[in-house]
Design brief:
This protein is mainly alpha-helical and 214 residues long. Helices cover 79% and strands 0% of the residues. It contains 10 helices and no strands.
Amino acid sequence: MDEEIVIINEKTRNEKIKSFLLENKKLLITVITVLILIVLGFYSYKIYQDGQIEKLSNKYNNAIIDYNNGNKIKIVESMEAIIRDKNSTYSPLALYFLIDNNLIKNRKDVNELFNILIDKTSLEKEIKNLIIYKKALYNADFINENELLNLLKPLTNSKSVWKSHALYLIAEYFFSKNEKQKSKEFFNQIISIENANQDILRETKKRLNRDLSE
């Protein structure tokens, strides 16, 4: 008797499943199709991304090869194009190359490229902080104290690993202006940072002991 009940229950369950599948056939096909399209779309996008990164890599490396071989005509155009592609790896490298080799004379143009990286490129937080610091370093000899302080505020108001670098740049800026009290205040802030860069900390102590000890 019990075996018959079990068999009946199994048949009933199977009939219910079969009935559900038949009644919802269109919905199930739609759901499966959508899932397949999502998976295909994901892998297609991944393949596209990898292809774009490879193209940027080749473009960057070829531009440097051409530059080293004496073909310097298109280097700025090539590197600016890479920067405008807003790639997290090659866009910063392209800007560093232009700056390190002094290939763009117009400071406004360089700052516009910095802004593309800082404001429009998806970067890890500390990479973006490094670029902010480099922008401040690039402009330090040409801007006033308020501009420098505002530019470095994202670093000085944070726990970034670049905070000590930012404070050192500000302190040296004031020292160069012979504003020794302000300079000393920023050097002292470096002393109190737990994760201060050791080279920066060493130079800070030298400056305080040698030039600002009175």
